[in-house]
Amino acid sequence: MWFSKENKRLLAFSVASAAVLLSACDNSSSDPESSSDFATNSIRAEYSVVVTDAGDGKHDYRMEARFEHDSDSLKLEGGDTISVVNGEQRYSLTENEVLGTVIYSHTENIANNVKPSELIFSLERDSQEDADASVINIPAYVEALQPTSDETISLLLGKYILVWTANESDSAGMTITQRYRCSTQAAGLVLDRTAEITTEDDGQYVLDIQAVIGDEDYDRGCTMDLTFSRKREGRLDEALKSGLTDGYYQEVVSDVRFEP
Predict the structure, then answer these.
(1) Percent helix, strand, coil in the chain (nearest 5)?
(2) Among 155, 50, 32, 26, which residue's Cα sits nearest to residue 103?
(3) pTM recorded for the entire structure
(4) Residue 172: what pLDDT?
(5) pLDDT means over runs of 10, the chain (260 residues)
(6) What pLDDT is stored for residue 21 in this prediction?
């Protein structure tokens, strides 16, 4: 199946967001527990914000939260609420249950000229201690310099140098997700493969494409989609037992063509 550029951006965004919050989850076989049954200092919270370019001088900020007690997913009940504070604005998060895991989320479209440097996740509770000061630091925007969307590139010994705007000072690393689709005259699409690497956020990486797609004769060529994901770590409210506070900025490059 072929996707439009917009659908590719949304697909990469959705997959990455799900990976942030669901990769460690193995409690799909049990029903969620009620948050009101547990003290704040026994709860694990996982917070994330994924920022993507929405065009027209704006970005989408996808905010997500989930809560656990001893690996069991928690449903906020008994007056417990989660919201995100951006200066004088407060965003409510919508509850959804996926395979036994309760996820709270909200997407806000924010103009670039009022880009927040941080967002605060606020867990407020009627009968237990609040945890209203978990901070997500928003990473600097990423610009992919090489390659760019719809470009035709040449490989050197099966490799290609990726280039982007570096940010080593406050970045926790750069993850680059790749999707390759290769075709032959005889059989059409014969390869659809993904790969992922994490490296220093120094603005350059030598991508070994042949190691991923092999040395077959794809006589109709290949296309590649890339998602550059910059990560920055935040600060968890000390009232909570443990958790994550990760901010991401994602840049998508699509339909890069090459001959292996």
Answers:
(1) 10, 55, 35
(2) 32
(3) 0.83
(4) 87
(5) 44 48 50 97 98 95 98 97 97 95 98 95 98 97 96 97 93 95 96 97 97 95 98 97 98 96
(6) 47
In sequence order, the β-bridge partners of residue 180 are: 193, 224
Least Cα distance to 252 among 4, 65, 2 occurs for: 4
Give the separation between CA 194 and CA 23, rounded to whole angstroms.
17
Amino acid at 199: T
| C-alpha distances in Å from residue 133, one per residue of 21, 70, 169, 183 | 20, 22, 24, 51
**How many other C-beta atoms can be found within 10 angstroms of the C-beta atom of residue 145?**
13
Structure tokens at 122: 């606020």
Enumerate the β-bridge partners of residue 110.
59
Ramachandran angles phi, psi of 88, nearest 5°: -90, 0
